[in-house]
């Protein structure tokens, strides 16, 4: 049995997604890349995959010719359709991603939890940073992002890919990142212990929405992402505002460490205006002005507003769990 992990990585997938092969490729790429990086940097970690609105846990093929990682434990938690259907708007939305992430966060075993997405590629500099035990329980760690091509997941992961995914030839659509990668090797040690010592009005909310790293205690006190059965636009910002209002200090890692972000399924804000309008027809979502008012409430010194109940993350549900070998 593996020892208790130091970091829990939490991602969520839509179990009834029609493009199941593409989802499997993303899962395998993410899992294998993370596994090799954890091995290289001796980082004990767990990867929690929440399979939302799914009949079973069979979402990722195992590779018998590739041994399981001694450093990475992979758990699949399945949320069945009957649970999904108990939420309002379940007839128009088949995936509540932030609620799904909360399911994994609530059941994570590590003292620090990183909520992220299968659409990101973890840089080696980040895993090296996480392995140094520099994380502090009163911080919220954030990152910026880059886009890269979804072609990166079309090929099986290899050692060179995991060593530096930015240098992999399928990710070289943005050569300008290379100088930043070189700088990262020299400044990684300087990227810690430098939280923003600014008033609340300087909350950095333009960071990557698929990277929120906090201590387990911080996740419990904030009660995770707002569990609203709507399109998840800006729900990450509401979590950030709540955490800062509770006294946690935001730390944005320097720009030399950035996530590469696969362009497929990227932010809705990147879509043409007409496509954005068409997408929101018939889809439940919250008025953007509401989030602006919420931000103003917090930067004005308002009290924290906990949007979830104490049973957030489907705490009262007994969900099926599978450990990948």
Summarize this structure as a short list of keywords or feature phrases:
alpha/beta, 6-stranded mixed beta sheet, 3-stranded mixed beta sheet, 10 helices, 11 strands, 18% strand, globular
* Strand order across the largest sheet: 8-4-1-2-3-11
Helix proportion:
25-40%
User: Which oligomeric state applies?
Assistant: single chain
N-to-C CA distance: 12 Å
Low-confidence stretches: 60-65, 152-199
| Biggest sheet layout | 6 strands, mixed
Helices and strands: which structural class? alpha/beta
Instruction: Report the principal-axis shape.
Output: globular
* H-E string: EHEEHHEEHEEHHEHHEEHHE
Mean pLDDT: 79
Q: Report the C-alpha radius of gyration, rounded.
A: 19 Å
% residues in beta strands: 15-25%
* Total E-strand runs: 11
- Summed up, the helix count is 10
Question: How would you portray this structure in words?
Answer:
The protein is an alpha/beta fold and 325 residues long. It is built from ten helices and eleven strands. It has helices spanning 20-40, 81-84, 97-106, 124-130, 159-163, 177-187, 216-222, 235-245, 273-280, 288-299, and strands at 7-14, 45-52, 72-79, 112-115, 120-121, 139-142, 144-148, 212-215, 249-252, 258-262, 320-324. The strands form three sheets. It has a six-stranded mixed β-sheet, sandwiched between helices. Strands 5-10-7 form a three-stranded mixed β-sheet, with no helix packed on it. α8 (235-245) runs parallel beside α10. The longest helix is centred in the first third of the chain and has 21 residues, at 20-40. The chain is globular. The model is unreliable at 60-65 and 152-199 (pLDDT under 50).
């Amino acid at each position: 049995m593996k020892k208790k992990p130091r970091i829990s990585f939490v991602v969520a997938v839509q179990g009834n997604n029609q493009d199941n092969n593409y989802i499997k490729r993303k899962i395998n790429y993410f899992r294998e890349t993370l596994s090799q990086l954890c091995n290289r940097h001796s980082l004990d970690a767990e990867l929690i995959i929440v399979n939302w609105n799914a009949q079973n846990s069979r979402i990722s093929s195992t590779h018998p010719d590739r041994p399981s990682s001694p450093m990475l434990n992979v758990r699949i938690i399945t949320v069945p359709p009957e649970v999904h259907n108990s939420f309002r708007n379940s007839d128009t939305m088949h995936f509540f991603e932030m609620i799904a992430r909360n399911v994994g966060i609530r059941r994570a075993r590590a003292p620090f939890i990183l909520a992220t997405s299968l659409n990101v590629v973890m840089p080696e500099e980040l895993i090296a940073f996480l392995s140094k035990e520099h994380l502090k329980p009163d911080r919220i760690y954030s990152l910026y992002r880059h886009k890269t091509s979804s072609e990166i997941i079309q090929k099986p992961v290899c050692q060179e890919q995991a060593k530096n995914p930015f240098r992999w030839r399928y990710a070289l659509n943005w050569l300008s990142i290379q100088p930043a990668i070189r700088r990262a090797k020299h400044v990684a040690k300087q990227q810690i212990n430098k939280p923003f010592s600014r008033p609340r009005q300087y909350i950095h909310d333009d960071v990557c929405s698929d990277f929120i790293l906090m201590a387990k205690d911080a996740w419990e006190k904030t009660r995770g992402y707002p569990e609203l059965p709507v399109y998840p636009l800006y729900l990450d910002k509401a979590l950030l505002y709540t955490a800062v209002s509770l006294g946690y200090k935001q730390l944005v890692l320097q720009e030399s460490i950035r996530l590469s972000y696969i362009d497929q399924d990227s932010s809705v804000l990147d879509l043409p205006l007409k496509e954005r309008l068409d997408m929101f027809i018939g889809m439940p979502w919250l008025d953007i002005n509401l989030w602006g008012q919420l931000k103003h409430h917090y930067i004005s010194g308002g009290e924290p507003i906990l949007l979830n109940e104490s049973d957030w993350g489907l705490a009262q549900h007994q969900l099926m769990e599978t450990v990948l070998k």
